TrEMBL record:
GO terms for molecular function: 6-phosphofructokinase activity; ATP binding; metal ion binding. The keyword ATP-binding applies. This is Phosphofructokinase domain-containing protein. The keyword Transmembrane does not apply. Keywords: Allosteric enzyme, ATP-binding, Glycolysis, Kinase, Magnesium, Metal-binding, Nucleotide-binding, Transferase. PANTHER family: ATP-DEPENDENT 6-PHOSPHOFRUCTOKINASE 1. It comes from the Eukaryota. Residues 260-541 form the Phosphofructokinase domain.
Amino acid sequence: MAFASLPNGVGLINLGQSHLHKELNECFNVKCLRFGTSKKRLTRDRPSSSIVVRAVAPNSDIDFSDPDWKQRYQEEFEKRFSLPHLRDVFDLTPIPTTFFLKNRGSQVVEDASSTEEKKYGYVNDDDRALLRKELLSVNPDQITELYGLNEGNSCLVQSFGYFMSCIFSKERNVIKFSSPTSAGAECIDPNCSWVEQWVHRAGPRQQIYFEPGKVKAGILTCGGLCPGLNDVIRQLHTRSKKSINFAEVPAKFVDFEIVLTLEIYGVKNIVGIPYGYRGFFDKGLHEVPLSRQVVQNINLSGGSLLGVSRGNGEVSDIVDSIQARRIDMLFILGGNGTHAGANAIHEECRKRKLKICVVGVPKTIDNDILLMDKTFGFDTAVEEAQRAINSAYIEAHSAYHGIGLVKLMGRNSGFIAMHATLSSGQIDVCLIPEVPFKLDGPYGLLKHLEHLIENKGSAVVCVAEGAGQDLLEKSNARDLSGNVVFGDIGVHIQQKIKKHFKEINVHADVKYIDPTYMIRAVRANASDAILCTVLGQNAVHGAFAGFSGITVGICNTHYVYLPIPEVISSARSVDPNSRMWHRCMTSTGQPDFL
Ligand SMILES: Nc1ncnc2c1ncn2[C@@H]1O[C@H](COP(=O)(O)OP(=O)(O)OP(=O)(O)O)[C@@H](O)[C@H]1O
Ligand SMILES: O=P(O)(O)OC[C@H]1O[C@](O)(CO)[C@@H](O)[C@@H]1O
Ligand SMILES: [Mg+2]
């Protein structure tokens, strides 16, 4: 069983292991995470929360002696991951789609789909993608055998690279954990049996639930900034160099790419909601009409041209505003908090019997959304973080007894710090929220730095902002969204290092770099930009397909739709028993600090 230990010693149990019955009730970092007896799933308590996140364990009370337990598990899993649909509430007859893959010129051509397109161009509602990201560790001979390459498989062995990518696209790339104690093992039963877990495939459907000409679509971005927001909502173009006055933006002044997909369907009425949810309840802010004029390169800059914000509005006020604006589709780009809000809006729309589709697009540099391979902005943030690390390294190595210290974002999750450490190869110590550490004592960080200075002459430390919060004075301060405001672990460590080396009378030249906002205010790199484009398009397809209360994502290399509660029931975090964290420690050569 792979428990991820948290700074306060709370066990964070991996998804798929909640049959291990244990009750915990602790506050972890920003949020209070509860592991209840009845639900047996980590949920997040938000004192100011207006919604309760659904928390259904697929494998609650599984009787493994029942020969049919796998089937039961899969049935429950299928139920959990079924997508809320307008049909659940309304008696609707779908119409043929207006989204065509072929014969599209500058104009949207009505019913121009070819027979071939009808056959192959769309995703079926029953299509599924295998959720679990699994790794294959067998040699090519075994692959040939395993995948029946000699039996008409379309993967032709042209080159090893092609061969591997072809194989890996077959959705059968699984790892068999022989034991729950294997690194990173996520097992359901004590024998680690393989149980397939399928989720819904994203993409355009042949039948749609809205007449595009009558649709009004809204887009908003909420939470902190993230590289790629403008790519998802690509491309916003201003003819003026001046910043946008959201109270007065002429139609066709701005142009977004989510808009492009909407317009390909034939939607003409598209608006941007300024500054996240605030745009719905702040009377001084007005929606921004968006159009499809071909405009350039706004995705070349970071930030969000719609603006972002934190802070709670009443869900009922927001839905009043959505209703008054007659919005039919709402696309919401944001992190965990924003998605909780999106789900609350979706639920409220259902309660009021409004035919509105709410579709989320997960945005977070922290990469802390459950189940997803990665979220957009993360890669870019890691890439940018390396620049800071490189500067810290150069400073440290150029100074006599230099110690470089870099603090990176990562509120609950150390993915940015871990990946930046792995990619830079210049870090001696990586500290993340998921792994507790001590500063003092024979096994503490300070002693290790002494050792590095003595033996290497310099050292570089990378610390995630949420790491070591137990070493700081507790603060009750919260930001507008209710997130706990952390103490500055970077400054704390810097001071402790200086004090320590002074006390032992050894010279140390400490250089502290805090690139916090620099790593998220940049434009998306190529891989994030592609991810953004695909997610943006799929969000639009999802709404036209009639799904609401869903989000889009990439899971196990496939693009999928997921019900929102499933991805926000807790923050995704680094598993200290994973191979990746082990690799990180191997790369730095750091000890445990405990
Ligand atoms: N449980 C909730 N129910 C309803 N709305 C929420 C909830 N949690 C957060 N929100 C709203 O979502 C918005 C964004 O939340 P938050 O500031 O936590 O950012 P986020 O989406 O998690 O992004 P980031 O990854 O940058 O933190 C805020 O306006 C907040 O009011
Ligand atoms: O200072 P702001 O804008 O509230 O954002 C800071 C937070 O944003 C994030 O990047 C994303 O949640 C966190 O890592 C960080 O704590
Ligand atoms: Mg958040």
